[in-house]
Amino acid sequence: MRTTIVLDAMGSDDRPKPELAAAVLSTQTDDIDLILVGDEQTLSSGLAAQPGDKSHIRIVHAPEAIDMTDHIQEARAKKQNTMQVGMDLVRKGEAQAFVTAGNTGMAMYFGTKIFGLMPGVIRPCLSTTFPVKGGKAVILDVGANAECRPEFLVQFGQMGQVYARIMLNRTNPTVGLLSNGEEEGKGNDLVREAGPLMRQQVPGFIGNIEGKEFFGGKVDVAVTDGFTGNVLMKSSEALGKLLFETLKEELMRSTRTKLGALLAKPAFDSVRKLIDPSEVGAAPLLGLDGLVFVGHGRSDAKAMVSAINQARIAIELNLLESLRKAITFTNTKESDS
Q1: Burial class of residue 221 in the structure, from the number of CB atoms within 10 Å of its CB (0-12 exposed, 13-18 middle, 19+ buried)
Q2: Among 245, 285, 324, 326, which residue has the fewest nearby CB atoms (within 10 Å)?
Q3: Which residues on neighbouring strands pair with residue 246, listed in sequence order?
């Protein structure tokens, strides 16, 4: 059975070029049908110029697009924007997930408006996976909620634990609270208040962790507020890129180092793939009662293909239902205690 995914064709900074290329590539290799949402004339002409089979791609007209600088007032005034039209298609059952490289805040706004929140969820959050020692780990929130309350972090931990179990195939995922020290009592008011609550309500919670423990692979899930998580994510990506580019420059300085680089090319390719954010492509907005994936605005075709693939995997593994059961179970357990 083929999976149907809606792709916001007017989300990325270079819209709609990456989206169009990714649509054709994704439908060639996987059992995916794609619905491209955007200006019909623009998308039709752009899609026609793409090589390959387009028989599994459909275009739905949405004349307006959300800009990265748009706030709620501007976005609400665009009644036929791609996010609203695309998410409506998922809500009506014409597709199983929505993918965009557009404005994160507006994706959360329209996602909450159109799908609503899962029963018991207070706030949705943006989750992504990071390369760490020994594999990958989940971190959330990475940008949806700059300001958080302790109870937000509790639910982020609950949802992150489910996400790691389903998407990373971890049997009993461990969860840590990102702080400036491992000891209880370290951190700001938010961390100090959230820690005891998480110990009571989050399966697999081990306490505070520092950044070095996260990258050292100590936990499967790291929980933080959206401001801290977003700074950590973007800084780590920039640092990884800087180190790789610097190493490349140094290896190209002489014949001897070039020879060494050639011999080590397989290892460098593995490292580049590990730190390349386009390998992940998009992060899910967990807590919405529908599947919404948000990618970088600067996403290229490769990143958009990865984003579509993330949505496909989440659909096939029934991530949404697993999250519903986890939150419902947690709330029931609390009310019974």
Answers
A1: buried
A2: 245
A3: none
16 preceded by a cis bond (ω within 30 of 0): yes
Looking at residue 113, its pLDDT comes to 95
CB 141 within 8 A of CB 156: yes
Q: How far apart are CA 207 and CA 175, in angstroms?
A: 8
Q: pLDDT digit string (tens) for 309-321?
A: 999 999 999 999 9
Rounded CA-CA distance 71/140 in Å is 23
Q: How far is CA 201 from CA 61, 123, 159, 291, 293, in A?
A: 45, 16, 12, 25, 27
Q: At what angle do helices 226-251 and 265-275 cross, to 10 degrees?
A: 160
Give the residue from 109, 326, 305 showing the smallest Cα distance to 202. Answer: 326
Place of tokens 């089979």: 53
CATH homologous superfamily of 3-121+287-318: Isopropylmalate Dehydrogenase (3.40.718.10)
Is 50 exceeded by the pLDDT of residue 334?
Answer: no
Q: How far lies 190's CA from each of 85, 180, 194, in Å?
A: 37, 12, 6
Tokens for 227? 């401001």
Q: What share of the chain is helix, strand, coil (3-state, %, to 5)?
A: 50, 20, 30
265-275 vs 255-263: helix crossing angle, rounded to 10: 70
Do 125-277 and 3-121+287-318 fall under one CATH topology?
yes
Q: Are 46 and 7 in contact (CB under 8 A)?
A: no
> Cα–Cα distance between 333 and 192 in angstroms, integer?
24
- Is the pTM above the cut of 0.85? yes
The architecture CATH gives domain 125-277: 3-Layer(aba) Sandwich (3.40)
